[in-house]
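Protocol step 4 of 5: obtain the predicted structure for the target chain.
Materials: sequence only (see below). No template structures provided, no constraints applied. The aim of this step is simply to have a reference model before the mutagenesis design in step 5. Sequence pasted as it appears in the construct record:
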Amino acid sequence: MLRIGVDIGGTFTDVVLIRDRIVVTTKVLTTPEAPQDAVLIAIGQVLRRVGARPEDVDLLVHGTTLATNAIIERKGSRTAFVTTQGHRDTLEIRSEDRFDIYDLGISFPSALVPRDRRFTVPERVDARGRIVRPLDAGAVAAVGDRLAELEVESVAVGFLHSYANPTHEQQVAEVLATRLPRVPISLSSDVSPEIREYERFSTTCANAYVRPKIEAYLSALRVALHAGGFRCPLLMILSGGGLATVETVAQYPVRLVESGPAGGAIFASGLARTYGLKSVMSFDMGGTTAKLCFIDDGNTRMSRIFEAARHYRFKKGSGLPLRIPVIEMVEIGAGGGSVARIDELGRLRVGPDSAGASPGPVSYGLGGSRPTVTDADLCLGRLDAAGFAGGSIALDEARARRVIDETIARPLDCRMTVAASAIGELAEEHMANAARVHAVEQGRNVLDCVIVASGGAAGLHVARLAEKLGIDRFIVPRHVGVGSAMGFLQADISFEVVRSHLRELSRSTPAEVAELIDAMTRQAVSAVRSASPRGKVTVKATAFLRYVGQGHEVRVELPGGRVDADLPDTLFRLFESEYERLYSRRGPDSAVETVAWSVIASVVQGETPDAPAPARAFVPDPDATRRVASMSRPDGEDIPVYVRDSLVAGSVVRGPAIITEAETTVMLTSSFDAVIDERLAIDCRRKSADPSIRESRA
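Step 4 output (structure tokens):
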């Protein structure tokens, strides 16, 4: 098969073509105003390189940050929200939690729907799904007329306890559809049918907020692909790492918020399984952001909630909660395009704002005037001005040096190379700090991890990140610069359905649970079959349990996915065992209840390859040398440069060194040496930690 993976990032659009054992990649600048233009340009480049035509393509897999960027940059649609009478301000009240109890000036992100576009109607359903107050159809009609006057582009509907009984929300959708025939309507009972109304309302509003933009983009992309001669299926990567059809994604675009980053995590998890690595930290650094994700035994950690647009860096609770299936990771504004500046207190700051693709870093010569991490790397000698992005972008080093000197070095009264080094160091410290905080939140020790790099900027900074975290090993796979797009082609076709089901185990009957799981399974399998008519579908059911009275729950997978007469006792034993594993103690002497059920249907797309065999080690001659400056050596030092395509299995590269390739550059510090393995990955180990490398250097 000829398969193509496409990843639209904030700065670059990456494309990978795989045909048998042939892998062809390319990077082009993203076209923010019409993202499909960059997609078609990049696909055209890789097809020409293998002599293929659009009609030869068997599958297109696509991921994008458009949904995330629309939320963060507040560039979504004009959205209205309809909710239960008396609950107009739930989006402002939030959960009444303070993520920092000592900050007197604490602030939260504003709601996606302003108060003047939030409306209420009389109705009420209780927590058991019983209708306490019937829906006032006349009030709904009046709201519909008002929304038409306001010319809203999208509507979110969220009622209290609609997860238990969606009838009222469905009735509202029917009435509004007659008055707003071309306006998409998102129901919380469809988008996020779970308890906790603030998170459910926030998720539904986000879905409505990005829906018109995503629908318009996907429609434009499909039209452009069809006009270009493509007749293959187009699948989208979801935040949870699965693939779904365009039709499914258009209905639930909020599930795209971590679409691009999910690819990098899948790429790293596949490598972890291949190498048999028990504990991995995926490090994906692109032009706009850096993403960190912990992987255990080749499996990414999953979460049911994600925070978008955090106001405070690293602070949980400071963003907009989205209750969706998502690979658990932390994302920070530290990429190659992150902007450096001097703040009002005279301190150097880097990010979280990014120069993006337009105007881009100063060195791109596209009108950028603010220095970025990429400009700093260029001025330090880490990047080749003529070979950047495979030679598609000629970097202007003189301009970058002048801007860093004027805006950073002179205000700090230091040399330009020191200022450039400080920019890189600060970005790396932001990433290291994010990794430490995320590790503490996950209850793990980063020293046990191996870093797997992906993304165009990761190779330049992964060694310093490992040094800062005290990690002894990191791996830079082939095609690391387009790692997310590679990950898309490794993803399984899958879809997850979650339903709230608040019941004490002692009062929950197997027949009741079986009926619920069967209904969820039909929905999940239907979504998967729309993308993969053939192939074996596997189904996994998971319960979320807690002691009665607790505020958070524990995941327990249903053994074999089967419901039998012993279900309550089986779940109780599994819950207590998992609770003790997590908290090193049994819980209170209290009843246990289910809060929700999850069903994931999936079709596996491929097998894990065997781990690479060790090759005979030898030290090759470098292809060139380059003068590279640093904080400790502002005048620079000459270090060897290797072209990655010229390195064969068994090649040993001693740090410090630079390894260049089309999509990225790897900067190896003096603390590490590297071996090129049989899969041509760069396996880097701390010199004091790898006796085999020390022996090969003797």
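Step 4 remarks: The first strand starts at residue 2 and ends at 8. The mean pLDDT is 88.
Proceed to step 5.
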